[in-house]
Amino acid sequence: MEKASMTGLRRVNNTRGGREGQNNNKDGVDHRSSGGLSVLGIITQVTTEGKVKVIDRIDGSGAGDVDTSTVVTPVDGTITGVSGRKLKVLCIPETWVNPSGKYHIGVKGSFSLYPKQLRERMTKDRKEKTWDPLHKELLAEAQRKVQAIENQKSNGSSSSGTNGNGSGGGGGNSSTSSNLLEKLGKEDAESRVSQLNTLEKKYSDLGPAYDCVVYHDGQVWRACIDTSECGHLASGVHLGEYRLTHQWSALTQNDHYTVSINVHNDGNLLEIVGMCSSHGTHVASIASANFPDNPEKNGVAPGAQIVSITIVITVEHSLFKFLNN
To answer: pTM for the complete prediction?
Structure first.
């Protein structure tokens, strides 16, 4: 393997034709980067010969691995996912073909797939939509209660049980009881405010957990990621193995995180492939972008095909960490 440049690009022998070291529109270039490739960028292009530009996408970090070794068959049209949700197999489109009738199931937390910046954005977005409205309402209610008790005390309402001579007129027990109730009420309201503020500071979101269903249609392995989080498989992400189908999709409409899938070990391991940065797309575009209508934007070898290998998603999921250990 000949090192092409300090950017991490390597020119390798192309098994589909071409000669190692050749630098023209028909050579084979394997562009590898720690970030992988954006499917909204170079993946939608073709080579100068009309071939698929990105022929394979691989996650070498382990971040996208899903254990799907549990095999089940539907009962009354449903599957009980690893999450415990009822997955509605009867609602799947007719295009789903599964001759064996068996499904491999697993579960994946989406935040383990996301790079840091996306995870932070999604955490903020989910907090604003699912946590803040109720939390702010409860906090405001508790604060209003504290203020109301303070106002009653400042207005002297707690001494309403005394007469003009300052004596209780026989109502001393009632006044003492009233004061005690007011004190307990204030302590309760203040405690609620304190607890709600503590919960806000300690807020932590592990993100959604998506059930994954893998099956073989007789020709290729396919997987569905239940992004509905309610078992409605028809509305989830449904993809075939990328190297055979070249299918990809955004994981959700909110994250715009494009993914593809690979399946290993006879369906027992699902690999969800994303990307952690735009660096890989940038480098691969410089090397092999192809714009037939704007050739001045072409890369060095627009006829090259690409294998994208993601080796870093987070510090916890890094090929570098694996090799160092």
So the answer is: 0.73
